[in-house]
Specification:
Strand content: 25-35%
Strand order of the largest sheet: 8-7-9-10-6-11-12-13-14
Number of helices: 11
Largest sheet: 9 strands, mixed
Structural class: alpha/beta
Radius of gyration: 25 Å
Helix content: 25-40%
Oligomer: single chain
Distance between the termini: 77 Å
Length: 454
């Protein structure tokens, strides 16, 4: 093979023929690096894992019933994957160090039935360490094969000989191709090794799970093209100081990207949390200013979440603002609407917003609860502990209806809340569940008066 140097952007993964100070694709400065790349492979040089030669086939003649799924043993993981893992798919699991990625994948290896062969490849642990961790987690290691290897050619050779049903790579940043002179984890190495594993999954029918580390910006380390190559991208989120973890799909070719799975980290590994609402509301302070409960829709599942806010007098010319769990620009928009349309002078105050439990919310139905939490913190008056609220807030301060109102109401009633504040547009909607009093508001001013009982 001939080798030449090419230039990659470490932020977006785009390739350029020469070095430049600023990436023309994503606009980032000083992110273009030089990497050697393999070009012009000789015929038959790339390994194939299927004896059948690929030829063009009419779409109507393709048998789609052969696309089979299998259960991983975790109902929460199956939900996020869209009903189970698809045979021959390539799944990327990302998360910060120590969050539980390796624990999750090793546990699902022990849950497969005895007819499935699993190859666990680790570039960070020895085979003895894998065995020790499996014993600590109580994993049945009868059908698991372990391999401590970082060279991609050796891994592909072992997979070709063993023909496993499931291949775990922990992690993709530790693999390297000796044909490239760049170090493991570089753009060229990650891209080349991922392409080899992609051919393995598609030609050989092996389901491949890749572990990917997350950089300081929260994205999976390596070229952005890595996420485009795989079939499914899962993010394992949560605070390391908390025992709870959230599994979210950022990309899924075989299912929805809105589903989430909830897990709890114990001394025996990860266990499923079938009721995330109860988990997220555990330890909620009662009659405390700056707290409000909302109901959001994650895929097909309604989840109650607690939104907390703190508003304090500003100590500088520029007030400090911070938001965790709610997109920053949207949170600042709600602060501005509360200032201009709600009649509360929060513009010169420091404002902090946080979603308890490490949950990231992109549902506009959480707008009303965020505004009520800010108003409660500003006035130092608590929202009643049996009140929940959901609704979208417009720039004029009006409340807009959100989707799946009936599903949200039943979840609110199921968790023991007796009153729900929602937009007036839903008054003609479905009947309220037994024991739940529905209160409607047209604007954030009305909602604040109702919630704080002014």
């Amino acid at each position: 093979m001939k080798t030449k140097s090419v230039y990659f952007c470490t932020e977006c993964g785009s390739e350029t023929p020469k070095w430049m100070g600023r990436c023309t694709t994503c606009g980032s400065w000083n992110t273009v690096v030089e990497q050697p790349s393999i070009t012009k492979p000789k015929p038959g040089e790339l390994p194939r894992f299927s004896a059948q030669k690929n030829t063009p086939t009419k779409l109507e003649r393709i048998d789609s019933s052969s696309e089979e799924r299998f259960k991983t043993g975790f109902l929460e993981l199956d939900r996020v994957l869209g009903g189970g893992a698809v045979t021959g798919s390539l799944v990327l699991v990302g998360g910060s160090p120590g969050i539980g990625k390796s624990t999750l994948l090793l546990q699902i290896c022990g849950m497969f039935n005895s007819s499935m062969k699993t190859l666990y490849v680790s570039g960070e642990e020895s085979e003895r360490q894998i065995k020790m961790r499996a014993g600590r987690l109580g994993v049945d290691s009868g059908g698991i094969y372990a391999l401590a290897e970082t060279e991609i050619s050796e891994i592909l050779l072992a997979a070709q000989e063993l023909k496993p049903d499931v291949l775990i790579i922990d992690s993709i940043q530790t693999l390297y191709n000796p044909e490239l002179t760049s170090p493991p984890g570089s753009v060229g190495q990650v891209k080349d090794c991922a392409m080899s594993l992609l051919r393995l999954s598609k030609d050989g029918g092996t389901t491949v799970f890749l572990v990917g580390h997350v950089n300081k910006e929260g994205a999976i380390a390596g070229p952005k093209v890595l996420e485009h190559m795989v079939d499914c991208v899962l993010y394992f989120e949560g605070e390391r100081s908390s025992n709870y973890r959230i599994l979210r799909a950022a990309k899924n070719r075989y299912g929805s990207t809105n589903e989430i799975g909830a897990f709890e980290m114990t001394d025996k590994g990860l266990s499923e949390v079938p009721n995330p609402s109860e988990m997220l509301l555990a330890g909620r302070p009662l009659n405390a200013p700056g707290s409000c409960v909302t109901c959001v829709i994650e895929g097909t599942r309604p989840i109650l979440a607690e939104i907390q806010a703190l508003v304090a007098p500003g100590s500088a010319n520029m007030p400090r603002r911070n938001s965790n769990g709610i997109e920053y620009n949207r949170a600042m928009m709600l602060v501005a609407v509360l200032q201009q349309r709600g009649g509360l002078r929060v513009g010169g105050c420091d404002a902090y917003i946080n979603v308890i439990g490490g949950l990231s919310i992109d549902d506009p139905g959480a707008d009303l609860a965020t505004v009520l939490a800010l108003a409660s913190a500003y006035k130092d008056k608590p929202v009643r502990p049996d009140v929940a609220a959901f609704g979208e807030v417009g720039l004029t301060g009006e409340l807009r209806q959100v989707s799946q109102v009936n599903l949200r109401q039943y979840e609110v009633a199921r968790m023991g809340f007796s009153r729900c504040i929602l937009p007036y547009g839903g008054k003609s909607g479905p009947k309220a569940p037994n024991g739940l009093d529905l209160t409607y508001a047209r604007s954030i001013s009305e909602a604040i008066q109702i919630a704080l009982e002014e």
